[in-house]
Write a structure and sequence with these properties.
By secondary structure, the protein is an alpha+beta fold. The chain has 2 domains: 119 residues, 3-Layer(aba) Sandwich (Rossmann fold), CATH 3.40.50.2300; 98 residues, LytTr DNA-binding domain (OB fold (Dihydrolipoamide Acetyltransferase, E2P), Beta Barrel), CATH 2.40.50. The chain has 7 helices and 13 strands. A 5-stranded antiparallel sheet has the order 8-7-6-10-9, with no helix packed on it. A 3-stranded parallel sheet has the order 1-2-3, with helices on both faces. Strands 11-12-13 form a 3-stranded antiparallel sheet, with no helix packed on it. Helix 2 runs parallel beside helix 3. The N and C termini lie far apart (59 Å). About 3% of the residues have low confidence.
């Protein structure tokens, strides 16, 4: 895997100098102190200490890209912009995007305080320290996309999938609404219909239609969402 990554980095970023390669976390820390590189590619599940533990020691001094076979590991940190991630096997197009992000970030110092807080919120096995969902994997066309949960305007169940609607478009997931409810923050996401969960922060207004039904207008999208009678109590003042 290191050989593959090195080869693809050489092809996509010829100016990059690879100063060292480590077989495990202990070597990574030793080699970092010897070479002090500007950035490090870290596997999350490498022999002890693991990638997250290594990152906690060097993240205040270099930019970090995690390389992982597991989408669930530290994705919140990656998508929050503090670091980036690559899934194994490394895709050349995805690597090109990573390189562009790194070039931009290397023009300024890393956001060290933010990165430290994010790493502190992640358990050493790579799972978030909180049980609340912070991101979701969704299908957009023929691609897998990692979506920050705060970007979601609403979820809507269909026959086989659940729609994930965002300002920038929509995606599909297989997770049913019932499972979503168990993982979402109840203060931020309300179920308003047996087939709809809405992000409260995305609600533009709520009004009654000609049949006295409650209708939710969502910011940035033309769709209107019906509130079923069982959930009308959420909007008691109307």
């Amino acid at each position: 895997m290191r050989e593959q990554l090195r080869g693809r980095l050489a092809a996509a970023w010829p100016q990059l100098q690879v100063v060292a390669e480590a077989r495990n976390g202990a070597e990574a820390l030793t080699l970092y102190e010897q070479h002090r590189p500007d950035l490090a590619f870290l596997d999350i599940r490498m022999p002890a200490p693991n990638g997250l533990e290594v990152a906690a020691k060097i993240a205040d001094r270099c930019h970090i890209v995690f390389v992982t076979a597991y989408e669930a590991h530290a994705v919140e940190a990656f998508e929050r912009g503090a670091v980036d991630y690559l899934l194994k096997p490394v895709d050349p197009e995805r690597l090109a995007l990573t390189i562009e992000r790194l070039k931009q970030r290397m023009q300024a110092p890393p956001d060290l305080d933010r990165l430290a807080k994010i790493l502190a919120s992640i358990q050493l096995d790579g799972t978030p320290a909180t049980n609340r969902m912070r991101w979701i994997q969704a299908t957009v066309g023929n691609q897998l996309r990692i979506i920050a949960i705060d970007e979601v305007l609403f979820f809507q169940a269909t026959d086989k999938y659940t729609r994930v609607v965002m300002q920038a478009g929509e995606a599909l997931i297989r997770k049913p609404l019932k499972e979503l409810l168990d993982e979402l923050d109840p203060d931020q996401f309300w179920q308003i219909h047996r087939s709809t969960i809405v992000n409260v922060r995305a609600i533009a207004n709520v009004a009654r239609d000609g049949q006295s039904r409650l209708i939710v207008s969502v910011k940035d999208v033309p769709e209107r969402l019906e509130v079923s009678r069982g959930y009308a109590h959420l909007f008691k003042s109307l």
